[in-house]
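Below is our example:

___
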Amino acid sequence: QFMMQDENLIPYVEGSLGRWYPVTKTGAARDFWTNDPHRKIVHNQFSAGTVPFEFTKNYKFTILNNENVWAKAINRIANDKWSAEKAVDEMIARIKQVAG
């Protein structure tokens, strides 16, 4: 509880020269994180948030991932000596079959 108070946590994090990113919005909003070019990158990374994987929006992406349709197309070109157009057409047909 002592360390979670901003008046204790902020000097600790800044005293460690940014070894840990602050867990509070007050600590993250300080100039300490934007004045140094290296810490600014860390600040931007944490501030940007995350992008969910496509399969969280549509489960059919997991089927396509599991079947490895992208690598199959590359394999058709590299090993089976198919043309890129033929391999991509096969891949697109499978994607349409699964995803609708």
The helical segments are 6-15, 25-28, 32-35, 37-48, 60-67, 69-78, 84-99. Residues 6-48 form one domain.
